Amino acid sequence: MMPLVDIYKENFNISLDRNKETGFVDEVTHPIVYINGLPKARLSEVVYFESGCMGIVTSLLEDYVEVMVFRNTPVLVGEKVSRSNEILHIPVGDGLLGNVVDSLGNSMHENKVITGISEFRDTNASPPPINFRERITVPLETGVSLVDFLIPLGRGQRELVIGDRNTGKTTFAMQVMLSQAKLGTVCIYAGIGKKLHSIKKVENQLVRSGVMNRTIIVASGSSDPIANIYLTPYTAMTIAEYFRDKGKDVLLILDDLSTHAKFYRELSLIAKKFPGRDSYPGDVFYAHSRLLERAGNFKFGNKVSSITCLPLAEAIEGDITGYIQTNLMSITDGHIFFDQSLFKSGKKPAINYFLSVTRVGRQTQSKVKWGINRELSSFFYLHSKTERFIHFGAELNEGIKATLEMGKKLDQFFDQTTEEILSIDVQIFLFVMIWSGILKEETIGKIRFYRAQAQKLYDKDPIFRDKLKKIINSSDDFNSILGKISAQHKELVDYMEKAKI
């Protein structure tokens, strides 16, 4: 495989012969370069330097063309430049599945050539107009009980995941990816300005879970050129649009957009754009809104397909009122807040339900899930009020004891390990067992055994899976399923305990 430097040098000569235009580097403030001598240059056009690097036109000034360079080392003043007469396009196709690529679509594994490329697409495509958008009606299973019950998501929703560093945001995103990949969804993870070992860790987890063939990782390292880091989320969205147009549902994780905003701020300040709040450029909102508006639930002809987007953002000391954070909140359809104090207390996932919002997901819920959501919301409000009340040293009556005990059981139920993914039917079954008091006397170890065993049987035993589906699908509301599982729980529990997997 020819090195990129040699490819770009060859493209420089081809472009020079074809367009008969030669530009010269007049000023360098790396990675922004000012070039004169390219009168027919246009925005987003690819240019090549004689030293063997590539750039794209970012602005057309009166005397110069402003170019963003895809290289760590600066180009030299006086260097020759040729324009390609082509807008920046990245390769897309089914061959990307199972691969780790950079923001230009090249494999990040040395000497690996990606085959199965179908076409090349513009990274700055306009979002489909409103007449192509469909109401979100299909739920998105995250595999995380706390989210599926209390902050439900729908296919095509854009949900911000926000919280302090190291509170479990990426772990949650990985759980959603594992859950969706097993259901056949195409999953794309965009690691923006990440450490290389973090990207490798994500890849290893996907390989270990056996879902890498349904996944694409688009990544840029923290030491990569700023231009590559800036382009990463747009490349990931472009790849997602390719699979959406083929009628497939796509899950897109953007990890994370607060890092992306910082690199965009650096680019803008170098390019002498006027700084605004916190020194971010005035168009930072537009940079993210034009990206996230490309996600949604769409109907093309008779096919309905979706891009569900989960952008991540970092909060500082639990403050979710920062500039970029509030920008993203106003663009998305809700947010899931990871609370540092909950994380330190040992809760995983450390999601603060009271400060989290979903504006779309509840309309996708069945009557059974709607009933569970209502019961849990009321109970957690009562539980938090009760915990505050007993701090005053109040005497514990039977009602308060029962509330605290149920809260403890639910905390144990919602506590999930990194690679523990629960199907929605298993979640409903186990929750009803706890809520109805069937597992009241059981230890935390026994509850975890039932949870693991129920999921294994659901995945591998069609008899158990059909029994659960029959009970849940035949229930009209929460009270109905409460009665049915209470009546059949002995049979189901015996089946779980005797089954050998």
UniProtKB/TrEMBL annotation:
GO cellular component labels: proton-transporting ATP synthase complex
Superkingdom of the organism of origin: Bacteria
Subcellular location: Membrane
Main subcellular location of this protein, as a coarse class: membrane
Domain ATPase F1/V1/A1 complex alpha/beta subunit nucleotide-binding, chain residue ranges per copy: 143-357
Gene3D superfamilies, per the entry: 2.40.30.20, ATP synthase alpha/beta chain, C-terminal domain, P-loop containing nucleotide triphosphate hydrolases
Keywords on record: ATP synthesis, ATP-binding, CF(1), Hydrogen ion transport, Ion transport, Membrane, Nucleotide-binding, Translocase, Transport
A single MF term (Gene Ontology): proton-transporting ATP synthase activity, rotational mechanism
Keyword Lyase: no
ATP synthase alpha subunit C-terminal domain: residues covered: 384-477
Family statement: Belongs to the ATPase alpha/beta chains family.
Subunit record text: F-type ATPases have 2 components, CF(1) - the catalytic core - and CF(0) - the membrane proton channel. CF(1) has five subunits: alpha(3), beta(3), gamma(1), delta(1), epsilon(1). CF(0) has four main subunits: a(1), b(1), b'(1) and c(9-12).
Protein name per UniProt: F0F1 ATP synthase subunit alpha
